[in-house]
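Why do we care about 3D structure at all? Because function follows from shape, and shape follows, mostly, from sequence. That is the central idea of this module. The next example makes it concrete: a single protein chain, its amino acid sequence, and then its structure expressed as tokens.
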Amino acid sequence: MQANSKISRTHLGRDAIVYIRQSSPQQVRKNHESRQRQYALVERAKALGWPQRAVKTVDEDQGRTGASSAHREGFKKLIAEIGAGQVGMVLALEASRLTRSNADWHRLVEICVVTGTLLGDEGAVYDPRDPNDRLLLGVKGTISEAELFTLKQRLHEGRWNKARRGELARSLPVGYRRQEDATVVKDPDLQVQARVQYVFELFDRCRVARQVLVQLLEQKLKLPAIVWGGPSHGELIWKDPDLSAIIRLLHNPTYAGTYVYGQAEYDSFHRSPTNGKAAVHPRPVEDWPVCIHDAYPAYLSWEKFLENQLTLRNNWFRGDRPGAPRKGRALLQGIVLCGHCGERMSVNSYSAKEQRVPSYTCARAYQQRGAAVCQSMTSRVVDPAVEQLFLDAVSPAQVEIAVQAVGELQARRQESLRQWDAELQQAEYHVQLARRRYEAADPDNRLVAGELESRWEQALRNLEQRRRERQEFIHQQDAPLSARDERLVQDLSGDLAAVWHAESTTMEDRKKLLRFLIRRVHLDGVGQEGAIRLEVEWHTGAHSSLIIDRPPVGVWAPRTPPAVEQRIQELLPQHDQATIAEMLNQEGFLSAKGLPFTRFTVGYLVRTRNWGNKPR
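And the structure:
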């Protein structure tokens, strides 16, 4: 041992560190031989003269790649101890175990030169101060880094070559199963198939992913899911629906029968600060490098899948997208643009709960460049004008919207009942399965029989609960229309204005109807004094222009009648603003704009007239 001239007493007076690393968690779980060989270096350190107490192991970097030291705490600890002059020798299975980066390798060697630390492996000891050993260590570091690139290139090309043929196995979403011969089929559970299909049908009807979630929750329907990881890996479970699961299902091209690879690209320049992984950016559908149609049995066509993706993107209220229709009172939400600068206009005072009249404001220059607000106008005069243009455009067509709605309502009811029938059938199966297991158990083994009996009772309780929920669902649905009701609906279908103004028609429904024909509306309230110019862009490519009077503002605005101001001052000491507004409306008073009073209009008068700290 002492015959090795490279090992001096100075080296033996310091610690010997055995560095242990494997590149991935899979290697840690499966490559036991490599791990044993690395831990065996402890015996080699002892054979070279180090006592047991002076031999340490650094194995914190198990499952970490050697391509960089940024996220290897064990390697940083090793460098720190070498720099402190506490290490006589570093032992590793080979140079690639220490690092696969030339920058990290040469930094390690330089520090070892300064502190006089040796490097060793299974067969040799190297002194970085010796020119020959220094040259050999440099070659080993270069080979180690080159091996990494070679391995990556081979794996990368092999993976892509297999993917281009559609043979690279990928995880399948719920609704599919891979057979023993590697072919992919729909899940044999018909309830799973029906529930997946039902989600696509709901989205086709609602056009908004969140509305799909609302429908499923209202109907108390669950979604199937595949368990990933753990002892139950691969098993099918039923769980409460959530928005992320619905969006993942709608975005997955597998349901269109298409094999896709390369949906995302990786940006190695931007990496996660926690795990060092490259940032992921999704590619557009038209840029997917591998896209093989008819590879799987489909739940919907490829054209329908592309239409769904476009709908989901348009539901984002960002950029040039209108966003999904919402419940607020601004009719042109998401489709109104500034006729002066061309930017998208936002909606202010947009609160359906507070019943404020919203306004359209072009504030992009104000928000991004610190300039003045381009223009702003109330929706009180704009929305009725656009609404009338829309009704005038569709009334000659005599569209039977209400009749179609009745048919759609009946179809929804039938499909929901089919989903509930599948739920009950599945619950009845679990009851029968629990009963058979209980009857097959040895009655003398009370521990097993008691547990099986409790499971049977639980299955019966679940079945009874599902029956009650199904009955509640049926009671909550509207009764089907009679023949007389259908005739009334057909008469009403000829008058779209009546449908539009019906109390049962929500603002969300009106916005959806409006967007079927109108693509954008351009508003210009600064080009002509005292007027607003409306440019309506229809989906057919046609354009309509309209000029309406702009409500006067400032000193030209109508004033609140003195009688109203006097009456408010009389009521202020005893009543709050909401009560005063209600009393003014009952007495027949109107605001300066000719509208009924609200607590906001009363509050505005109290503040601007400086009538003191009155009750709110």
